[in-house]
Amino acid sequence: xxxxxRTPEPPRTGRRPQRVxxxxxxxxxxxxxxxxxxxxxxxxxxxxxxxxxxxxxxxxATLVSRGYVLQLPDRSYCLGSRLVxxxxxxxxxxGVHLQPVLDRLVDxxxxxxxxxxxxxxxxxxxxQSASHRSMRMFTEVGRRVAMHSSGVGKAVLSTLPQxxxxxxxxxxxxPAVRETVLAEVLRARRCGYAIDDEEQEAxxxxxxxxxxGGPAPxxxxxxxxxxxLVPEVYERVANQLRATARELxxxxxxx
Length: 255
Hints:
- Residues 20-81 form the HTH iclR-type domain.
- Residues 82-254 form the IclR-ED domain.
- This protein is an alpha+beta fold.
- It has two domains: 21-88, Winged helix-like DNA-binding domain superfamily/Winged helix DNA-binding domain (Arc Repressor Mutant, subunit A, Orthogonal Bundle); 95-254, Beta-Lactamase (2-Layer Sandwich).
- It has helices at residues 21-35, 42-49, 53-66, 82-94, 99-109, 151-157, 162-172, 175-191, 234-254; strands at 39-40, 69-71, 77-79, 112-119, 122-129, 144-145, 194-197, 204-211, 218-225.
- The longest helix has 21 residues, at 234-254.
């Protein structure tokens, strides 16, 4: 299931960040509008965000006054033009300007590749280049996936201190799988890549490597039918991913 994309945050320091309720609620309203396709009535926003109507009215009025939300003639609300500038900046920082790099990797691997950032204790896909094959994988940009059951998540976990890994798994992973995931993270540290073996979707494998130097901890992955992404090609695919990961790191450093 697709989820509304969130902005990448700085790497965690092991301490849970403080949250401001009014900011949380404002973002909930914006995300509710985005999930509704960009426009909705205040009642629909309140239901989607799980907030009282008076609170939603006050937040919408503030957002309208700042230009981040517009009120339409039929009294519904839509996302405003001031978000376009923020989105453009976020796109440059996250993945859109890296698209040619991903496209070149697809030409070499002939499979779909994805770039994901570590955000809000999960992984968020920020860019993708789709395979040209008739049977290909597709992941919606903005989709969030769990750290413990995704290749990109396990690749990022392999770069974090063990205490931080245990903290993240304790917060999100079912107790029955934590030791298994820890073992996979250790294996990923040794071999330099992580595997999602049909954990997100039956018949689909994902191989991922960490990417350093970005605005948040990141991973680059290739997704393909399990019949094509077989163990015999893992090392070859990983080498291609690592080369592109170094290219991304260099491009971030130059920006």
